[in-house]
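Data deposition worksheet. Section B asks for the primary sequence of the deposited chain exactly as it was used as input, without tags or linkers unless they were present during the calculation. Section C holds the resulting structure in token form. Section D is free text for depositor observations; keep each observation to a single sentence. Incomplete worksheets are returned to the depositor.
Section A, Depositor: J.P.
Section B:
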Amino acid sequence: MDAARRQKEKDYPEPDMFGNTPAHGLLIRHAAGIEISDYKVIAAVSDARPCFVLDDVERVDFSNVKTDTAPGTPAFVLKDVQDFSVTRSRAVPDTRIAETKHTEL
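Section C:
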């Protein structure tokens, strides 16, 4: 990663400061102990990106999540994730994953 991009990571996050993100809902990286509940993502236009991308995340729980996803697009992309669960989501069935290098739901 170049120095300019590393500096941007320390600045206050603006929605467009990194260009297009890999998710149209939430991008969660290098985090632990995340709980998302009663959360709804509605895309203004059809978006081929996944709604949620998790990268290097531990202990994350999603509950009662509603998402818009384009046909054939996963709602969740998990990369190096441990202790993941999703319940009561319209996009995917209830799922618990102890550990994964890469999973798409």
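Section D:
DSSP finds one helix and four strands in the chain.
Residues 65 and 89 are 5 Å apart (CA to CA).
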